[in-house]
Design brief:
By secondary structure, the protein is an alpha+beta fold. The chain is built from nine helices and nine strands. The protein has a single domain, classed as Class II aldolase/adducin N-terminal domain (L-fuculose-1-phosphate Aldolase, 3-Layer(aba) Sandwich), CATH 3.40.225. Bound molecules: Dihydroxyacetone and zinc ion.
Amino acid sequence: MKVIESEFFKEALRFIGYGCQMGWHERNAGNISLRLNKEELESVRDDFVLTDNWVSLPEAVVGMANEFVFTTVSGSYFIDMQYNSSEKFCICEISNQGSAYRIVWGGKRPTSELCGHLMSLSAMKQKNAGRAVYHCHPANIVALSYIIPQNDKEISSALWESETEGAFVFPQGVGVTGFHVPGTLELAKATAEKIKYYPAVLWSFHGIFASGDSIASAFGLAHAIEKAAEIKLKVLSSGLPIVNTITKEQQEITAKTYGFKLNEF
Ligand code: 2HA
Ligand code: ZN
């Protein structure tokens, strides 16, 4: 089958469209990745073109050796992904040492955040925690970077107390990287370190990096986080006294009701 006929391709295109409707993808903002499973890989292998154009990674990601990763192409405008789609996505094969990649299908150059995706997909694989990543630039969570101390506990608590969903959609909380220059190895490492403990990471002043079993679930997580952030920001910017909140006990009981335990940090 052709890659563009596959379910994973169609799902990526659909969810990128939803992200655009949310206003999360200005210019070339955002990137996604999916570590292909065996069935997906076998179903599209005939569409691959193999070359010897291996590109070295700045640092080997041994856990991703021999994997195939479907991702977005650097510089692609998400708002325009429907047009010439096969040049705006690509599939990277990772070498048997995890130190290089080659493109076996699609556009010329993977996302500028490739290292962050690969290192995170590796950490997720190790703990059996999904194989998809969705990165976007939603305004409300980014705005909170300025008014909530940038540590995992503070940001997680702020989101949990903002709406009832938080405590069972992301009971482990959300990790925070602090400021890093986009597309750097430093950001990649900081993210992969946090994704070991949290299903999603806030890139301070930048956006959300969410993981999941599928593009749909990673998107859903980003959506839930951003909605909680929007409520938090609305409450804070109302200027009105806060007379009620979702208490810690209520957050804990919500998580417990759904079989989870809130992270205690
Ligand atoms: O791909 O969003 O983080 C553009 C970005 C960089
Ligand atoms: Zn970004």
